[in-house]
Amino acid sequence: MSLIVQKFGGSSVANAERLLNVARIVTDTYRAGNEVVVVVSAQGDTTDDFIAKAAELNARPSKREMDVLLSAGEQISMSLLAMTIQTLGCTAISLTGWQAGIQTDINYSEARIRKVKPERVRSELDRGRIVIIAGFQGINKQDDITTLGRGGSDTTAVAIAASLGADLCQIYTDVDGVYTADPRIVPNARKLTEITYDEMLELASLGAQVLHNRSVEMAKKYNVDLEVVSSFTRNPGTKVKEGSDMEKMNVSGVARDNNCARIAVINLPDEPGVAFKVFSLLAKHKINVDIILQSVGKNRVKTISFTVPQDSAEETREVLANAKGQLGFEDLSVNTEVAKVSIVGAGMASNSGVAAKMFEALAMAGINIRMISTSEIKISVLINEEDSEKAVKAIHNKFFSEE
Ligand code: ADP
Ligand code: ASP
Ligand code: MG
């Protein structure tokens, strides 16, 4: 007997027909002699709809109340799925995040799981029940509901799998695996039969939303067997694992992130300690900074540009504008019409010419690069948002069609 965790995303549980389809997958797994824990997301666009509803009433609602609201979406799906499974003759029980023992830190809307106490889930499994858990939510030390960030149900699933010592964690979604690029942008993208945790973590962090990046981080840390599969087809999916043969792969995928903004702090004094002042101020406000570029100092001034998540752009502008006197810059520019496009591959570091090939693809497509950042296993460029689909297609074509 194996213990299997199955997570179903929003489109997989969007309506009655799809819930029945999910219930069949779950009960087939159970009847094959396995213990099954299911993690569900909110149905379809429920989370977005809740966000829009809140915005009608309050432009800046408190994060605490947003978490109370958003967590309701997953609670609807979990009970509907439990009821549907009951109609197929199996016993199922639904549990909220706190009932399932998911304890988080205090950061509403982006909480991190600190600990999972699996006793309740374990005892329900011991009674022969299928356990359905609300994804994306937990409880903090003040006994308040928290949520884990958009796409966080994947992380719930991996955390539950790790805490129960599950044999497998399956992420069921609307594509049948991890592809070399988002198949919605690049229809001829290739499905990967497997990918390493490290490459998947980079892809997810760089915008491939097929897996929540923290779920991959956690799967690597606790060595959880992770698989991405479709709930609509029975095709084999993609295994995410520790790997060595993948090193042969130069580039394993292309990712795009439209949720970026570029900030330029123009004409700062060109003297020691300036970057420290700017970035420690942003760190104090918990603003995540990504690519950083500093111009060559000239006439005793320099410009520092960097990217932040788009929803931090306004706060970044405010924080910097309030510190204008102290930092001594002349001007500030904020551009939210930018996107980051990246290539990821474990074999990149040992292969020269990968960057040149990526830049050639962009040049041929007539796309201007605004910023570049590289690491051992990725190269990212910042470009105009309107060019981002064209860029993904051109880069993908260069690396995956020309070989
Ligand atoms: P779910 O609701 O099941 O969690 P998501 O929308 O979060 O599903 O993630 C699945 C989507 O991820 C796919 O529909 C696809 O458009 C997108 N995606 C982005 N990059 C990739 C990739 N490299 N491989 C597969 N899917 C990707
Ligand atoms: N419902 C949440 C979201 O839309 C969490 C998830 O689906 O993973 O982001
Ligand atoms: Mg998702």
In a few lines, what is going on in this structure?
With 403 residues, the chain is α/β, with parallel strands linked by helices.
Kindly list the characteristics that best describe this protein.
single chain, binds aspartic acid, 18 strands, six-stranded antiparallel sheet, eight-stranded mixed sheet, alpha/beta, 403 residues, globular
Percent helix, as a range, is: 25-40%
Report how far the terminal alpha carbons are from each other. 44 Å
Poorly predicted tracts of residues: none
Bound molecules: adenosine-5'-diphosphate, aspartic acid, magnesium ion
Strand content: 25-35%
Oligomeric description of these chains: single chain
Q: Provide the succession of SSEs.
A: EHEHHEEEHEEEHEEHHEEEHEEHHEHEEH
Class of secondary structure makeup:
alpha/beta
State mean pLDDT (0 to 100 scale): 95
Major sheet: arrangement of strands: 3-6-2-1-9-11-12-10
The 3D shape can be described as: globular
Q: Please describe the biggest sheet, giving its number of strands, its sense, and whether it closes into a barrel.
A: 8 strands, mixed
Number of strands: 18
Radius of gyration: 23 Å
Number of helices: 12
